[in-house]
């Protein structure tokens, strides 16, 4: 099985989510949890963007020892110098340079010709290489770039010293087969491509960030970038917990491993949600409140007989303590009895029948019956003579 590197950008791209503004302490807490989670690289921020970000990146670089800490920089000398100042205390510092390569970005945003973009990228990668051993270069908006131009610029920046080439789907525009094709094309058309690691970075505007990341891996990418809970610009980035669990659960199809400690998934997700204020929706894959909840009677019965009937991910795998049978109007006797047992209350068969009827009446006007409701019902039937 080949090893896929996980590059977490919760603290940089994730923090670019509208309304999210983490202070240094909060960033440090998340960084420590990311280290426990086992990500290979964490992008701590963009030091040239503000004094606060510089300080936070520096604090993280000085604290985190087991994960490579990286920082974002534009292809300008002052950004690279500032990033070095923030990162030089890190155990494994690396830099992430980016420059757009799509006609739309080069024409309207950069107002540069493709040749100028090529020269700037090459010059700044060599400059960064004087300080950093690991230099990642990203072709911003790669998925809307001309493939031949992309192949040429990649060859040149690898010659200049880039060790990682990242091909972002910056605006979440691509589809899995198209994105996969781009990686395949680079593998086949860039002569020195094997001297660098290929990385994918997907945004979720069309809801395909995770699928696109997996397609990239199938076509030669060995680094996946994303964020916890999929937070990030606009509709967010690829959700790392979804990518990691997909690779694990479908190892028959994806022969790759990651260094993630999946049992830390839920804790990491909860921490990021709490500190960013970006709470995950109930039906979010892997970490949502309902991810292991079964409401219909048939599903509940199946899960109680054998969890694999309706569960492809075990709660234990991702650090969720117990599975959560939600009791509602579709629930049957079997699930009800089990829940009562889980609450630690002993009732006779006769009283259980009465309690079940009371529960059914309650579900007529209450969608979800809580543990507190059940306690009340059970206490009432217990005291009934
Ligand atoms: O989405 C993107 O293109 C980025 C780059 C800075 C890598 O986040
Ligand atoms: Zn991005």
From TrEMBL:
Needed cofactors, names only, are: Mn(2+)
EC class name: transferase
Its annotated pathway?
Amino-acid biosynthesis; L-leucine biosynthesis; L-leucine from 3-methyl-2-oxobutanoate: step 1/4
Residues bound to Mn(2+) are 13, 201, 203, 237
Domain of life, source organism: Bacteria
The Pyruvate carboxyltransferase domain covers which part of the protein? 4-266
Which Enzyme Commission number(s) are on file for it?
A: 2.3.3.13
Q: Which reaction does it catalyse?
A: 3-methyl-2-oxobutanoate + acetyl-CoA + H2O = (2S)-2-isopropylmalate + CoA + H(+)
Give the transmembrane region(s): none
Signal peptide (UniProt feature, chain positions): none
GO MF terms held by the record: 2-isopropylmalate synthase activity
Q: What are the protein's UniProt keywords? A: Acyltransferase, Amino-acid biosynthesis, Branched-chain amino acid biosynthesis, Cytoplasm, Leucine biosynthesis, Manganese, Metal-binding, Transferase
User: Which function does this protein serve?
Assistant: Catalyzes the condensation of the acetyl group of acetyl-CoA with 3-methyl-2-oxobutanoate (2-ketoisovalerate) to form 3-carboxy-3-hydroxy-4-methylpentanoate (2-isopropylmalate).
Q: Which family does it belong to?
A: Belongs to the alpha-IPM synthase/homocitrate synthase family. LeuA type 1 subfamily.
According to the record's subunit comment, the protein's assembly and interactions are: Homodimer.
Question: Could you tell me what this protein is called?
Answer: 2-isopropylmalate synthase
Gene behind this protein: leuA
């Amino acid at each position: 099985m080949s090893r896929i590197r996980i590059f977490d950008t919760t603290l940089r791209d994730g923090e670019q989510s509208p309304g999210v503004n983490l202070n240094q302490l909060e960033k440090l807490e998340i960084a420590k949890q990311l280290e426990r989670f086992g990500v290979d690289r964490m992008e701590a921020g963009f030091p040239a963007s503000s004094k606060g970000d510089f300080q936070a990146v520096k604090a993280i670089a000085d604290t985190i020892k087991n994960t490579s800490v990286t920082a974002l920089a534009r292809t300008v000398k002052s950004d690279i110098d500032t990033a070095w100042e923030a990162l030089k205390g890190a155990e494994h510092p690396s830099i992430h340079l980016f420059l757009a390569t799509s006609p739309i970005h080069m024409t309207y945003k950069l107002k540069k010709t493709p040749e100028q973009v090529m020269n700037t990228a090459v010059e700044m990668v060599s400059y960064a290489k004087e300080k950093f051993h690991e230099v990642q270069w990203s072709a911003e908006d790669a998925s809307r770039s001309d493939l031949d131009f992309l192949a040429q610029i990649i060859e040149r920046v690898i010659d200049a010293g880039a060790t990682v080439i990242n091909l972002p789907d910056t605006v979440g525009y691509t589809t899995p087969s198209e994105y996969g094709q781009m990686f395949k094309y680079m593998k086949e058309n860039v002569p020195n491509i094997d001297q660098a690691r290929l990385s994918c970075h997907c945004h979720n505007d069309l809801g395909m960030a995770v699928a696109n990341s997996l397609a990239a891996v199938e076509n030669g990418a060995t680094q996946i970038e994303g964020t916890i809970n999929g937070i990030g610009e606009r509709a967010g980035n690829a959700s790392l917990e979804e990518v990691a669990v997909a690779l694990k659960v479908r190892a028959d199809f994806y022969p790759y491993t990651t260094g993630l400690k999946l049992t830390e998934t839920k804790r990491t997700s909860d921490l990021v949600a709490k500190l960013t204020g970006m709470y995950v929706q109930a039906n979010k894959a892997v970490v949502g409140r309902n991810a292991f909840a079964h409401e219909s009677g048939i599903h509940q019965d199946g899960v109680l007989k054998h969890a694999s009937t309706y569960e492809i991910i075990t709660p234990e795998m991702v650090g969720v303590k117990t599975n959560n049978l939600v009791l509602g109007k579709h629930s049957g006797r079997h699930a009800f009895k089990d829940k009562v047992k889980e609450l630690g209350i002993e009732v006779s068969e006769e009283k259980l029948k009465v309690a079940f009827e009371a529960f059914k009446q309650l579900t007529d006007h209450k969608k979800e019956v809580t543990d507190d409701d059940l306690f009340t019902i059970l206490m009432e039937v217990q005291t009934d003579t």
